[in-house]
């Protein structure tokens, strides 16, 4: 059961406190997209697979991309700011 901090983080299973490799990592870029790396699947709300075409993708956070769910750089033109 996730705790109150439900952000995706690497597993911390090593004895020295360093993160171990996970299936996928998600990095939120300041005022930009979510970068997803690793082994992941993108699905529509009804469960249909979206072809990611590569192992790293940038997902839109601003809502203005013409390539949703992928980022097309529209956040720069619209002045998107992440809170």
Structure description:
By secondary structure, the chain is mainly beta. Helix content is 6%, strand content 22%. The chain contains 1 helix and 5 strands, in the order βββββα. Strands 1-2-5 form a 3-stranded antiparallel β-sheet, with no helix packed on it. Strands 3-4 form a two-stranded antiparallel ribbon. Strand 3 (42-43) and strand 4 form a beta hairpin. The protein is globular and about 30 Å long. The two termini are 26 Å apart.
Summarize the structure in short.
By secondary structure, this protein is mainly beta.
The helix-strand sequence is EEEEEH
Secondary-structure class: mainly beta
What average pLDDT do the residues reach? 82
Low-pLDDT sequence parts = 1-14
Quick one: how many beta strands? 5
- Integer-rounded radius of gyration: 15 Å
The number of helical segments is 1
Structural descriptors:
single chain; 83 residues; mainly beta; three-stranded antiparallel β-sheet; two-stranded antiparallel sheet; 1 helix; 22% strand; disordered N terminus
Blueprint (SSEs and pairs):
Elements: E1 24-28, E2 34-38, E3 42-43, E4 49-50, E5 56-59, H1 74-78
Antiparallel strand pairs: 1-2, 2-5, 3-4
């Amino acid at each position: 059961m996730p705790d109150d901090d439900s952000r995706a983080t690497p597993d911390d299973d090593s004895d020295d406190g360093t993160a171990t490799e996970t299936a996928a990592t998600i990095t939120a870029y300041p005022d930009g997209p979510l970068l997803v790396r690793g082994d992941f699947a993108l699905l529509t709300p009804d469960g249909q697979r979206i072809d990611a075409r590569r192992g790293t993708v940038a997902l839109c956070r601003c809502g203005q991309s013409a390539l949703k769910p992928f980022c097309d750089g529209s956040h720069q033109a619209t002045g998107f700011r992440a809170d």
